[in-house]
Design a protein that fits this description.
Order of helices and strands: HHEHHEEHEEEHHHEHEHEHHEHHEHE
CATH superfamily of the largest domain: Thiamin diphosphate (ThDP)-binding fold, Pyr/PP domains
Largest sheet: 6 strands, parallel
Number of strands: 12
Strand order of the largest sheet: 3-2-1-4-5-6
Distance between the termini: 43 Å
CATH class of the largest domain: Alpha Beta
Helix content: 40-55%
CATH architecture of the largest domain: 3-Layer(aba) Sandwich
Radius of gyration: 24 Å
């Protein structure tokens, strides 16, 4: 568990390898829950007043998106993703309620509150930086957990029913048990819940869209407008179905995905956190795997700093990725983290550490990209958007647009003795 140094001597590196390459053999993990466990889980879910589903990337790995959608519809339960890196429900499904809190336990708490039975499938709970372990669920909430990672089941929260099982087989088995046990009254209750959940989720989406408009008016935020215009341009060019996104936009992800989505499995890849800089190289890998797609990398200016040299790879190997760097001159996530840290300790707000600001010197991603041979534009005003979007949609090589958004780290300590 400590530091590891691997040293390969030059004579080994220079020696010929006589081993024949063989394909990787991946063992089957298609393990189904036993019938008794499925019976107990179905009984809990059928008796629930307000069930909820939490899912994660285990669903996508097992190809269980359709099975999850079917089960959610039968229960009338909203579905939240827990730190997902790709879509775990079919494109545009009405019961998809979004992601739980990746950073703050209070956000996850607000999403699971009031639900008396929670089905957790293909994920662990919860991955926040500032978790709320003691009060994440209501005191009387019952948990049902199916996943292939035995270590995570019951680790942080006691579970009522659980099994180490393939998510797809578990969800299919649960659906079958529900069908066997449903009464006419039970189906009617589930139908009413489903209609209420659909209406509530759509209302939340409408609030978010209104919030985008307020942000545009009040803060000059450009991401909602930019994403809307990009979606329209792709639609007009007949290339909307070719869109694939690698999302490392982090604090701007919500506005970006609202207007460019919904995404089908394979159309969206997200960073799950823990490190920065995966956006551009991740998009390179996706573009190589899907050469007929329009692959976009959305990344913050802080994240792009880590791996901007990936643009050299894009030019050298003629990989036509489309990069959007979202530049606010600082690390907004760090600012949010330290504000939460101060709040939890009843500390008065203070100026952010100077390391949170990266605007002295200001990073000129347009110039950096051009130095690698990448076509690039910077967008600072509304009248510059059309040209940038046209470049993103129509250029046949690697391209970068540097999208300026308002600074998110006001009050940072000056990073230069002269105070600049």
């Amino acid at each position: 568990m400590g530091p590891v140094f691997v040293n390969l001597p030059m004579d080994i590196l220079d020696a010929e390898c006589e081993e024949e390459p063989t394909p990787t053999r991946v063992p089957s993990t298609r393990v189904a829950p036993d019938e008794e466990t499925l019976e107990r889980a179905a009984a809990l879910l059928l008796g629930a007043r307000n069930p909820l589903i939490l899912c994660g990337d285990g669903v996508a790995v097992s190809g269980a998106q359709e099975a999850l959608a079917s089960l959610a519809e039968k229960l009338g339960a909203p579905v939240y993703g827990v730190n997902s890196s790709e879509p775990n429900l079919p494109k545009g499904h009405g019961l998809w309620a979004g992601l739980t809190g990746h950073m703050f336990g209070k956000d996850s708490r607000s999403r699971v509150a009031g639900h008396d039975v929670v089905l957790i499938c293909g994920t662990y709970v919860f991955p926040e930086v500032f978790p709320n372990v003691l009060e994440a669920f209501d005191r009387d909430t019952k948990l049902v957990h199916f996943d292939l990672d035995a270590y995570e089941i019951g680790k942080n929260f006691p579970v009522e029913v659980s099994a180490v099982a393939d998510p797809k087989l578990a969800l299919l088995g649960l659906g079958r048990k529900l069908d066997e046990r449903f009464t006419t009254e039970g189906r009617a209750r589930a139908d009413r819940r489903r209609e209420q959940a659909l209406a509530s989720i759509e209302a939340a989406r409408a609030d978010a869209r209104r919030g985008d408009a307020v942000a545009l008016d009040a803060k000059g935020s450009t991401m909602p407008q930019f994403a809307r215009a990009l979606a329209k341009a792709l639609e007009a060019a007949g290339r909307r179905d070719a869109l694939v996104v690698f999302d490392e936009a982090l604090t701007e992800s919500g506005a970006m995905t609202r207007h460019l989505g919904p995404f089908a499995p394979g159309e969206m890849h997200q960073t799950r956190g823990g490190s920065l800089g995966v956006g551009i190289p991740g998009a390179l890998g996706v573009q190589l795997a899907q050469p007929d797609k329009l692959v976009f990398a959305f990344t913050g200016d802080g994240g792009a700093m880590y791996t901007i040299q990936a643009l050299w790879t894009a030019v050298h190997h003629r990989i036509p990725i489309r990069c959007v760097t979202i530049s606010n001159g600082g690390y907004k996530l760090l600012a949010l983290n330290i504000q939460q840290y101060w709040a939890e300790r009843n500390m008065p707000p203070a100026a952010f550490p100077r390391e949170f600001a990266i605007d002295h010197p200001r990073l000129d991603f347009k110039a950096i990209a051009e130095s690698y041979g990448v076509r690039a534009l910077r967008v600072e005003r509304q009248d510059q958007m059309a040209a940038a979007i046209e470049l993103l949609v129509s250029h046949d090589g690697p391209v970068l647009v540097d999208l300026a958004v308002p600074s998110e780290v006001p009050g940072a300590v000056p990073c230069h003795p002269c105070g600049q």
